[in-house]
């Protein structure tokens, strides 16, 4: 058994690991099998992470965080958690390969997943012109006319990035003003390849083998129009990844894991949560990292409060 297991490998997970490892807690960090590194792996330039005055590529930032966590003794396992038992003093984590790992404390930092429009054709045409990740798939849309759905920072960032490949990018938004920050809006407005389609809801995605257009409904007049396209990028936000703990931890009305005040303490003793999975509002790499720090410090205090005999049962870990 270990003292601590951290689930998640974004800025929250790795920062928690840096702190826990430096506190000599020998953390095991479970990074997902396919999404290791979290959302920043799908980002290009990160311009607002303090300390990188010239900016840094998202994957490079994550590689540095992992290197720093490993330098102090974090062990990283690449697999998906399939089951969790968070009750009692000993927490059990089951992985996709059937292995189970036990720990006295768990930090849950699983981030969030792309939100979907919820249309049948979205699934059918996924990977055939429907994408949720411009940096992953943008290259396939060279010289095409495409649309980005959404009005937040993600939509502006994706639309601006996609103008490197696409001949034209429509931004389809359900309102007549954007939620995105001013600087991102201005960048998109100034880009001659971007055209905004306001007050429009996506009610259909057309195409037999690949996307060939969108059906839009005007939110004011109700009129339906079709927009011929070679692809669409859905950038309408994210939902916290809580499916593993639905029945074990209290959630907030927004669907994030509930924590006590400004701490990382969940409704289950010995279980802490950090990053996007507890944050419906700020969702920045730097706020996630700070939240990982809080979780590691809370976990450290919790472990220090446990009886000697229990702590002694969390002996030396070392992966095979
Ligand atoms: P947001 O929640 O900020 O924005 C989501 C957008 O999608 C909104 O405009 C919303 O419309 C729209 N939307 C939501 N659901 C639907 C739906 N079903 N159909 C159509 N449209 C829909 O998410 P983001 O991912 O853009 O940003 C999340 C956070 O991450 C923010 O804090 C943002 O600042 C941050 N971020 C920062 C970046 C940066 O600084 N470089 C880059 C990317 C994200 P409505 O406005 O009507 O609600």
Estimate the helix proportion, in percent: 25-40%
Rounded to an integer, what's the Rg over CA atoms? 22 Å
Globular, elongated, flat, extended or rod-shaped: what is the shape? elongated
Mean pLDDT: 94
Please identify the structural class as seen in this structure. alpha/beta
Cofactors and ligands: NADPH dihydro-nicotinamide-adenine-dinucleotide phosphate
Which sheet architecture does the biggest sheet show? 7 strands, mixed
Low-confidence stretches: none
- The proportion of residues in beta strands is 25-35%
Total E-strand runs? 19
Work out the helix count: 8
Distance between the amino and carboxyl termini: 14 Å
SSE succession:
EHEEEHEEEEEHEHEHEHEEEEEEEHH
Structure write-up:
The protein is an alpha/beta fold and 320 residues long. Helix 1 packs parallel to helix 7 and helix 5 runs parallel beside helix 6 (182-189). It is built from 8 helices and 19 strands. The longest helix has 21 residues, at 285-305. The strands form 5 sheets. Strands 1, 2, 5, 6, 7, 8 and 19 form a 7-stranded mixed sheet that branches. It has helices at residues 11-22, 58-71, 120-124, 134-137, 153-162, 182-189, 285-305, 308-313, and strands spanning 2-7, 28-31, 45-46, 56-57, 75-78, 81-85, 91-95, 100-108, 112-114, 130-131, 145-149, 168-172, 194-197, 200-206, 213-218, 224-228, 231-234, 238-240, 271-273. The mean pLDDT is 94. The chain is elongated. The two termini are 14 Å apart. Residues 48, 115, 117, 149-155, 157, 174-175, 179, 181, 236-238, 282-283 line the site of NADPH dihydro-nicotinamide-adenine-dinucleotide phosphate (NDP). NADPH dihydro-nicotinamide-adenine-dinucleotide phosphate binds at residues 48, 115, 117, 149-155, 157, 174-175, 179, 181, 236-238, 282-283. One of its GO terms (molecular function) is thioredoxin-disulfide reductase (NADPH) activity. This is Thioredoxin reductase. It comes from Cryobacterium breve. Belongs to the class-II pyridine nucleotide-disulfide oxidoreductase family. Its cofactor is FAD.
């Amino acid at each position: 058994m270990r003292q601590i297991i951290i689930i998640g490998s974004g800025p929250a997970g790795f920062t928690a690991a840096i702190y826990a490892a430096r506190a000599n807690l020998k953390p095991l960090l479970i990074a997902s099998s396919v999404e290791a590194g979290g959302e920043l792996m799908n980002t290009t330039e990160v311009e607002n992470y303090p300390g990188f005055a010239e900016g840094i590529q998202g994957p490079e930032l994550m590689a540095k965080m992992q290197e720093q966590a490993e330098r102090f003794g974090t062990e990283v396992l690449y697999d998906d958690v399939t089951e969790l038992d968070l009750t009692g003093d000993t927490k059990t984590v089951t992985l996709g390969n059937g292995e189970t790992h036990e720990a006295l404390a768990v930090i849950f930092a699983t981030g969030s997943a792309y939100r979907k429009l919820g249309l049948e054709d979205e699934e059918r045409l996924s990977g055939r012109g429907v994408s949720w990740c411009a940096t992953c798939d943008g290259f396939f849309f060279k010289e095409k006319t495409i649309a980005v759905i959404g009005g937040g920072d993600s939509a502006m960032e994706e639309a601006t990035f996609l103008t490197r490949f696409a001949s034209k990018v429509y931004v389809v938004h359900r309102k007549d003003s954007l939620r995105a920050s001013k600087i991102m809006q201005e960048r998109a407005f100034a880009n001659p390849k971007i055209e905004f389609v306001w007050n429009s809801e996506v009610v259909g995605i057309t195409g037999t083998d690949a996307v060939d257009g969108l059906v839009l409904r005007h939110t004011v007049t109700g009129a339906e129009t079709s927009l011929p396209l070679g692809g669409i990028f859905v950038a309408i936000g994210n939902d916290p990844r809580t499916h593993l703990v639905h029945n074990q931890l209290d959630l907030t009305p927004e669907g994030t894991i509930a924590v006590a005040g400004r701490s990382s303490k969940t409704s289950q003793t010995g279980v802490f949560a950090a990053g996007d999975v507890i944050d419906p509002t700020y969702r920045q790499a730097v706020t996630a990292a700070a939240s990982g720090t809080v979780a590691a410090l809370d976990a450290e205090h919790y472990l220090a409060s446990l009886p000697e005999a229990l702590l002694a049962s969390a002996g030396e870990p070392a992966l095979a």
